[in-house]
Each structure stands twice: as C-alpha cells, then as structure tokens.
Amino acid sequence: MSHPHIGNSVAHPWSGTLASGVTTLSRSDVERIAALAHLELTESETDRFTRQLGEILSYFDRLQQIDTTGVPATTHPVTSAPVMRADNRRPSMPRDEALANAPDSCGDGLFRVPRVIG
Fold first, then answer.
1. HSE (CB half, 13 Å, CA atoms) of 109?
2. What is the mean pLDDT of residues 51-66?
3. pLDDT tens per residue across span 1-42
C-alpha cells in the first residue's frame, strides 16, 4: 500500500507542488503561508521562518530517503492497552460542603462562574 505523501512530490497549498529534494522555501512562500494563516510577520520573522521552515523541509527530505521496505506501518507506538481502575460508585462530598468554599454560589445548589463565551 502506498502512502499519499511518499513519492516524487508532496502537494503544498501555497505553491502547487514542491518536488522531492527541494529543501528551501522562498520569502514569497513564507509570506503566502503567513497570509493564509492571517499572520503579520516582521522582516526578521519572515527571514527566520524562511530559514527554519527550510530546515524542517530538509529534515523531511532526509526522512524520505530512508528505505522502509519491509517495515510494517505503525498506527500507534504503544501496543499495550491503558490500565483503568474499575468505575465503582462511591459516596461523594455533600453538596453543602462542596459549595461552602465557593466564592459565589447562587443558592440553588449551583456554582456561579464568570461568563467565558460571548
């Protein structure tokens, strides 16, 4: 089974197709990526990200050169199942005791919290 990102080219939304082996980006590539992400970059940030993203692409190019013939695909690095405790019902703290230290309880057994959405 072939992987869609392994082969002669890797598709990128900012420049059509970037051929395998191309490990640098131009400033215009980084500016286009920033525009797509609605980021405003300074000149120094654009220079730094051009270099850093180029280094990342170079590393991925090195990874693509590794012969993985005969290596089974890995879907998860951990093969054991998580150890879970039994979900047993047990007594909880009484409601009045839980609300005793609340900074603002509304009197009907609920916590009042600051609005965080809208």
1. 2
2. 91
3. 444 444 434 444 434 444 555 556 899 999 999 999 999 999
Buried b (16+ CB within 10 A) or exposed e, 71-110: eeeeeeeeeeeeeeeeeeeeeeeeeeeeeeeeeebeeeee
**Which residue has tokens 């980006």?**
25
Q: Is the pTM of this model over 0.70?
A: no
Domains and CATH numbers, the chain: 9-64 (1.10.20)
Q: Give the C-alpha distances (Å, rounded to integers) separating 3 from 7, 9, 19, 57, 68.
A: 8, 12, 16, 18, 12
Provide the residue type at 7 as one letter.
G
